[in-house]
């Protein structure tokens, strides 16, 4: 009386076909995206690889392409990144901790949350103009690296808060409960039970936010006004330039060699970004402890 | 209904008990009848019936033990199963006593009875009545009825003493009758033990109802 | 043979305790005495409020918003819900082990030492960690790998680790919230044996769904039930022996014999 398995089931063949088509479609999408990316990279590398020399890295900009280098922009980028990190990490992580662990669930907190999400999507040039009017003019910080860092901080702060909050939210409630049940007050629970587990996520979020900061040209254009810099900044009040701007500067030169230099600069920038993302992945894997069975 | 299967199993246990009750009743009645009518065939039948009682007992025990293991009964359920095991044991012993009466009848053999039977049938009737009442009390968990059964036990004891005194008199007067007299004393003793077992069942019923193990005088 | 019925001191006294989550009344006027060095079991169908009641003893309900408590819980002659008492103080004296084992993602040693650190313990940590692990019958199994991650332990071992973690700070009372419902039978037995040993030195309150477990480990049992308004009430509380052989209330009888529909 049992119904036998239908080896030649036609409905199964049809389902398999649909599944196959779907997978093929997805694969196609992946290939298209990869192709686009690869062609971009290949073009840049072809244009720029012969320009990637010690000169490129260690020299200051010059009218002569053979002697032009990124040193000022490179140091400027690193300095700005460092300063931005110094500002955003305490503020961003602190805000995330407050919003997740301490803030009461009322209309004000919801208001802050919604706005944080929205701010993360605002175009970067808006931040550039904001930074210009507040930091450069109103606070009279001039076109200093401090003003640049503050502007960048405003840009990446919403994203940082968001990712830190996600990392904190992902800590299982069970950890918190256990810590409370042992007689911890809220700060102890946060510091000793929540943050250690959220740490890898927060760290990854910081590095990703900073790597976004490196690549953003628009706000820096507004702050620096594309002034031609041939020195490295020393104090926070010094003038500066960053990699994207220097590259932009070269691209707009008439000589062909400068386009090669620009490509070389892009390669350096990409290497920097790649390293930062790799560090993020390595650090995340290293500190990722199994927190669920 | 929750635990339908368990309730059904408990009902089946009760059915088995009632089957055994009927069997044992018949054994008691028939064993005394076979004595009265000098009917050896009937005695043999009674002896066979005891095997049937034993089989039912083994079967019920096994089922009850498995229910304890699998259903993990508590409170009333637990007391019910425990009481079932006690009651079947009492009924089985009653069957043994009835079988004993039949066997003694075979021993007495084809000879005439030394005296007409008056008190022994009385004892048998009273024992049966007690058994019926205590089993009714058990089935309905009727504490008052159970208590009344225990009081009737005294009457059976009085009858037994009378039988023994009479038979002792006869033995003293006529020593050649001592063998049969002794056998008859055994029979009276068995009937008294049957009545006694009924009081045990009555006490088990009170345990079922209240959870208290209590001896009633 | 007489069964000893020693009268212990009362460790926790609950007086007319009612719990509200916002407008919803979860528990109504619960009154009971929890005796010292005994195991008290809280049983009842899902949603009857037994976990809510358990969490009142160490004020873990305070962590939920909009919780309101009426009535008192007296511990050590103080009402633990009075305004002057900080819940943090209570929790170091009344510990808790949760239903699903929840060790921290740290080493075994650090898990046990966590409570000591939080409470600012100054002294020999190694000794206290060892003592706690011995008390929770885990020492022999982990003494050679104290610095392994806690998640390398089996489920049953993790739960005993959570017990060691709670025992490390030397509480007076231990609250167990269905501690074995996520464990296999062998691990369950180990935990029950542990409870039997621990009750000599601690007062234990256990919430369990398992009737037989409650019958096995507890000295007193309290049966809670919620009506249609989902508000939990205490129906009956007595010695475990009485509750499971001859309960007084029909609802208790129906629940423990599984005749609830």
Structure, explained:
By secondary structure, chain A is mostly helical. Chain A contains eleven helices and no strands. Chain A has helices at 10-48, 54-58, 71-102, 107-119, 124-138, 145-169, 173-181, 186-215, 218-224, 243-251, 256-287. In chain A, helix 5 packs parallel to helix 9 (218-224). Chain A is flat, with a radius of gyration of 25 Å. By secondary structure, chain B is mostly helical. In chain B, helix 1 (4-36) runs parallel beside helix 3. Chain C has a domain at 102-170: Rossmann fold (3-Layer(aba) Sandwich). In chain C, the strands form two sheets. In chain C, strands 6-7-8-3-9-10 form a six-stranded mixed beta sheet, sandwiched between helices. In chain C, strands 2-1-4-5 form a four-stranded antiparallel beta sheet, with helices on one face. In chain C, a hairpin with a 2-residue loop joins strand 1 and strand 2 (24-35). In chain C, helix 3 (108-118) crosses helix 4 and helix 4 crosses helix 6 (155-167). Mean pLDDT of chain C is 92; it is low at 1-5. Classes of the chains: A mainly alpha (293), B mainly alpha (217), C alpha/beta (261). The A-C interface holds A 104-105, 172, 174-175, 177-185, 188, 192-193, 196-197, 289-291, 293 and C 58, 60, 63, 65, 88-89, 91-92, 95-96, 98, 100, 102-106, 114-115, 117-119, 149, 151, 155, 162, 165-166, 169.
Protein traits:
heterotrimer; A: 293 residues; MetI-like fold; C: 261 residues; alpha/beta; Rossmann fold; six-stranded mixed beta sheet; four-stranded antiparallel beta sheet; 10 helices
Give a summary of the structure in a few sentences.
The complex is a heterotrimer of chains A (293), B (217) and C (261). Chain A is mainly alpha-helical.
Low-confidence region ranges of chain B: none
Please tell me how large the radius of gyration of chain B is. Answer: 19 Å
Number of domains of chain A: 1
> How many β strands of chain A by DSSP?
0
Inertia-based shape of chain B: elongated
Question: How many DSSP helices of chain A?
Answer: 11
The top-level CATH class of chain B is Mainly Alpha
Number of domains of chain B: 1
Question: Could you give the distance between the termini of chain B?
Answer: 41 Å
Q: Let me know the average pLDDT of chain B.
A: 92
- Topology order of chain A in helix (H) and strand (E) letters: HHHHHHHHHHH
Task: Please tell me the overall pLDDT of chain A.
Answer: 87
CATH C-level label of chain A: Mainly Alpha
Largest sheet: number of strands, sense, barrel closure of chain B: none
């Amino acid at each position: 009386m049992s119904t036998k398995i239908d080896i030649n089931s036609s409905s199964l063949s049809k389902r398999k076909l649909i599944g196959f088509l779907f997978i093929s479609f997805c694969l196609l999408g992946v290939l298209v995206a990869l192709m686009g990316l690869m062609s971009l990279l290949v073009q840049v590398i072809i244009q720029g690889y012969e320009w990637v020399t010690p000169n490129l890295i260690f020299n200051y900009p010059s009218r002569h392409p053979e002697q032009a280098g990124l040193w000022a922009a490179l140091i400027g980028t690193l300095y700005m990144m460092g300063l931005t990190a110094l500002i955003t990490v305490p503020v961003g992580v602190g805000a995330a901790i407050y919003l997740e662990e301490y803030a009461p669930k009322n209309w004000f907190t919801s208001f802050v949350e919604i706005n944080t999400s929205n701010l993360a999507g605002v175009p970067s040039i808006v931040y550039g103009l904001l930074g210009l009017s507040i930091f450069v003019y109103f606070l009279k910080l001039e076109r200093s690296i401090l003003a640049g860092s503050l502007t960048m901080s405003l840009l990446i702060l919403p994203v940082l808060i968001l990712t830190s909050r996600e990392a904190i939210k992902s800590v299982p409630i069970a950890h918190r409960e256990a810590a409370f049940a042992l007689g911890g007050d809220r700060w102890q629970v946060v510091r000793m039970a929540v943050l250690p587990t959220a740490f890898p996520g927060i760290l990854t979020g910081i590095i990703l936010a900073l790597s976004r900061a490196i690549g953003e040209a628009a706000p820096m254009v507004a702050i620096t006004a594309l002034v031609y810099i041939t020195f490295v900044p020393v104090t926070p009040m010094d003038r500066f330039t960053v990699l994207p701007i220097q590259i932009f500067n070269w691209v707009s030169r008439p000589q062909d060699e400068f386009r090669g230099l620009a490509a070389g600069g892009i390669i350096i920038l990409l290497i920097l970004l790649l390293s930062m993302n790799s560090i993020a992945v390595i650090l995340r894997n290293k500190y990722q402890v199994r927190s669920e069975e | 209904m929750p635990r339908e299967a368990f309730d059904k199993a408990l009902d089946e246990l009760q059915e088995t008990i009632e089957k055994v009750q009927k069997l044992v009743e018949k054994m008691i009645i028939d064993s005394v009848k076979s004595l009265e009518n000098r009917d050896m065939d009937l005695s043999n039948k009674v002896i066979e019936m005891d095997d049937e009682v034993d089989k039912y007992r083994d079967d019920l025990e096994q089922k009850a033990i498995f229910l304890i293991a699998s259903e993990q009964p508590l409170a009333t359920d637990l007391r019910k199963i425990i009481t079932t095991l006690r009651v079947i044991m009492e009924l089985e012993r009653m069957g043994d006593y009835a079988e004993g009466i039949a066997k003694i009848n075979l021993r007495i053999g084809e000879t005439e009875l030394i005296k007409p039977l008056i008190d022994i049938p009385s004892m048998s009737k009273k024992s049966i009545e007690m058994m019926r009442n205590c089993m009714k009390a058990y089935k309905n968990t009727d504490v008052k009825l159970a208590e009344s059964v225990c009081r009737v036990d005294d009457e059976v004891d009085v009858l037994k003493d009378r039988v023994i005194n009479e038979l002792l008199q006869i033995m003293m007067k006529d020593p050649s009758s001592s063998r049969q007299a002794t056998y008859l004393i055994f029979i009276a003793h068995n009937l008294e033990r049957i009545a006694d077992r009924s009081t045990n069942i009555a006490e088990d019923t009170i345990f079922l109802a209240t959870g208290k193990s209590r001896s009633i005088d | 043979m007489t069964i000893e019925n020693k009268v212990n001191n009362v460790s926790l006294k609950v007086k007319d305790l009612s719990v509200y989550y916002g407008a919803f009344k979860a528990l109504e006027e619960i009154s009971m005495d929890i005796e010292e060095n005994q195991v008290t079991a809280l049983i009842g169908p899902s949603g009857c409020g037994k976990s809510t009641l358990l969490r009142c003893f160490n004020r873990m309900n305070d962590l939920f918003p909009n919780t309101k408590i009426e009535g008192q819980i007296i511990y050590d002659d103080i009402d633990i819900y009075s305004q002057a008492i900080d819940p943090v103080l209570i929790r170091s004296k009344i510990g808790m082990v949760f239903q699903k084992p929840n060790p921290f993602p740290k080493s075994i040693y650090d898990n046990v030492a966590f409570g000591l650190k939080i409470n600012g313990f100054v002294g020999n940590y190694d000794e206290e960690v060892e003592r706690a692990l011995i008390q929770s019958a885990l020492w022999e199994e982990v003494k050679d790998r104290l610095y392994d991650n806690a998640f390398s332990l089996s489920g049953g071992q993790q739960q005993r680790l959570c017990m060691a973690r709670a025992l490390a700070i030397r509480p007076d009372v231990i609250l167990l919230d269905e501690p074995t419902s996520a464990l296999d039978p062998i691990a369950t037995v180990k935990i029950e044996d542990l409870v039997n040993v621990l009750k000599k030195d601690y007062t234990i309150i256990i919430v369990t769904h398992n009737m037989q477990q409650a019958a096995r480990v507890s000295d007193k049992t309290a049966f809670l039930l919620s009506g249609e308004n989902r508000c939990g009430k205490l129906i009956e509380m007595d010695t475990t022996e009485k509750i499971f052989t001859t309960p007084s209330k029909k609802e208790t009888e129906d629940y423990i014999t599984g005749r609830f529909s």
